[in-house]
Amino acid sequence: MAGFSGFDPVIRRLGGIASRRELRHAGWSETDLWFAWRYGNLDRIRIGWYASNDLPPEARAAWVAGGPLACVSALQYYAMLPLEESADQHALHIALPVDGHIGRHAPDDLVVHWSTADRYSGTRQAVTPSVALRQARGCSSPAARAAAARAAEVSRSRIQRGTAVAATPSARSPATSGSSSTPTSQASSRPPADRGP
Length: 197
Prior knowledge:
This protein is 36% helix and 11% strand.
């Protein structure tokens, strides 16, 4: 194995986010992973999950919360919203499979789109643009629904200029079913947080 300096290239090849199992499969031992994390050579973003050092902050925040960017957060990630619309205008939206778990360090105003198909529609960083747009149109957040209309307008103008945003390639098939979005708060019932090492 390439030692502690070899983590980042491997994690980048895996899309910027890698599981402990994937790093073990690449040749590192549990002891290697522990020492690398403990001494700052490996960026653990959740128990059992690690990030490359160039992972975008919004994708990092989403994965800390539990999964890839979704809905309006994914639209921002793909630059499908007007430039003046900043990320802090919206809560963080992520996609989780129906049996997924919200991360223990998730923000209180997190909005979760519960759909296994949506979760696996894109990359570990974000659902596909088409799924994000569909989610925003049907989101429980009025701000996200309004953003969907703005994103559709941005996409139309790009298509007219010949610079349409291309869908991100996916190893899995695109989503074909709807998703339900659930804003979370301390008062709501949350699925269990991550447990164990």
